[in-house]
Amino acid sequence: MRILITNDDGINAPGLHVLEEIAADLAGPGGQVWVVAPAFEQSGVAHCISYAHPTMVARLDERRYATEGSPADCVLAAICDIMADGLPDLVLSGVNRGNNSGENAMYSGTIGGAMEAALQGLPAIALSQYLGPLTGGLDDPFEGARRHGAAVIRRLLDHGDWTSDADFRLFYNINFPPVPAASVRGVRVAPQGRRQGTNFSVVPYTAPNGRRFMWAAGGAQNAPARPGTDVAVNMEGFVSVTPMRADLTCHVSLHDMAGLFEQDIPRETETS
């Protein structure tokens, strides 16, 4: 198996090294693991691509590359150039330092990399490690993902829905809970949730030269969410697996609004 891995924390991030171990386990002795990751941290860039300027790509070692772009840029660089002679069988993005459950999924560069792979017709999975008080004192805060990652992915590869219809291919978002590996209670398939009463915000800052800046700030990651959603099961100690696709349409509203514009909108009366 040929596996491409990327992330949004950067080429030197600890979570990427964890994902390399997971990918090597999955690929097996005769497989290949290719790394194409951002040269610098790209957290919060979502699915952005470097459309308005070129992106430098540097070869660091055999099957290991760094780009100046986003995770989606990395996937495009891999499939359109670096691996163009033999596309990957699987694309893995992560392991992110911090969760990408709930509303975080909308901002996540980790998910953006997996989404781009799915848009290009490739099987893709995003992986993130929820952090918290119970992981803060661990020698390896990624031990949950390290110990359980390969098994969860294998189950998905063997039994998951890898539907590739005429529009948008499914991909998967996996989040490992904020507990030691031995305390992980199991795996739950769960929809994306939303933490209640918390949002991303901005903290303004004035530099010594008088210029105005801002820091983006996240909300409380332990805020409650609807039971059964990814956030909720993560907080209960379960790994969450969420099937996703790059389709933001609200299909329920499509049905409810079906007759709203069946009649033409009246034109304003023209006056001379």
From TrEMBL:
<keyword id="KW-0963">Cytoplasm</keyword>
<dbReference type="InterPro" id="IPR030048">
    <property type="entry name" value="SurE"/>
</dbReference>
<comment type="similarity">
    <text>Belongs to the SurE nucleotidase family.</text>
</comment>
<feature type="domain" description="Survival protein SurE-like phosphatase/nucleotidase">
    <location>
        <begin position="3"/>
        <end position="196"/>
    </location>
</feature>
<keyword id="KW-0378">Hydrolase</keyword>
<feature type="binding site">
    <location>
        <position position="43"/>
    </location>
    <ligand>
        <name>a divalent metal cation</name>
    </ligand>
</feature>
<feature type="binding site">
    <location>
        <position position="96"/>
    </location>
    <ligand>
        <name>a divalent metal cation</name>
    </ligand>
</feature>
<protein>
    <recommendedName>
        <fullName>5'-nucleotidase SurE</fullName>
        <ecNumber>3.1.3.5</ecNumber>
    </recommendedName>
</protein>
<keyword id="KW-0547">Nucleotide-binding</keyword>
<dbReference type="Pfam" id="PF01975">
    <property type="entry name" value="SurE"/>
</dbReference>
<dbReference type="GO" id="GO:0008254">
    <property type="term" value="F:3'-nucleotidase activity"/>
</dbReference>
<comment type="function">
    <text>Nucleotidase that shows phosphatase activity on nucleoside 5'-monophosphates.</text>
</comment>
<keyword id="KW-0479">Metal-binding</keyword>
<dbReference type="InterPro" id="IPR002828">
    <property type="entry name" value="SurE-like_Pase/nucleotidase"/>
</dbReference>
<dbReference type="InterPro" id="IPR036523">
    <property type="entry name" value="SurE-like_sf"/>
</dbReference>
<feature type="binding site">
    <location>
        <position position="8"/>
    </location>
    <ligand>
        <name>a divalent metal cation</name>
    </ligand>
</feature>
<feature type="binding site">
    <location>
        <position position="9"/>
    </location>
    <ligand>
        <name>a divalent metal cation</name>
    </ligand>
</feature>
